[in-house]
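Consider the tokenized backbone below.
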């Protein structure tokens, strides 16, 4: 039985519309196929080939993506900033 991809909408590629998520995936050693623009909405996406490693990275991203929302770039915690309550 084949494992279901974490954010599967079908196809061989994962289209990432979150800049932060795309940077995280790239920092984990996955290279993108292309950066493009959605033809209807104009939203910028980063296209990654689906792999088991990418699947595990996306699971990790879901666990930690809001952890640093209330922190500025220099590491200072800012009260009531961002989406820190999820």
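A designed sequence for it:
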């Amino acid at each position: 039985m084949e494992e279901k991809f974490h954010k599967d909408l079908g196809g061989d590629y994962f289209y990432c519309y979150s800049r932060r998520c795309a940077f995280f995936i790239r920092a984990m050693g996955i290279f993108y196929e292309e950066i493009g623009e959605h033809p209807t909405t104009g939203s910028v996406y980063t296209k990654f080939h689906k792999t088991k490693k990418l699947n595990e990275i996306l699971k990790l991203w879901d666990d930690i993506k809001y952890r640093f929302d209330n922190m500025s770039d220099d590491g200072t915690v800012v009260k009531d900033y961002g989406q820190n309550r999820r």
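The two ends are 33 Å apart (CA to CA).
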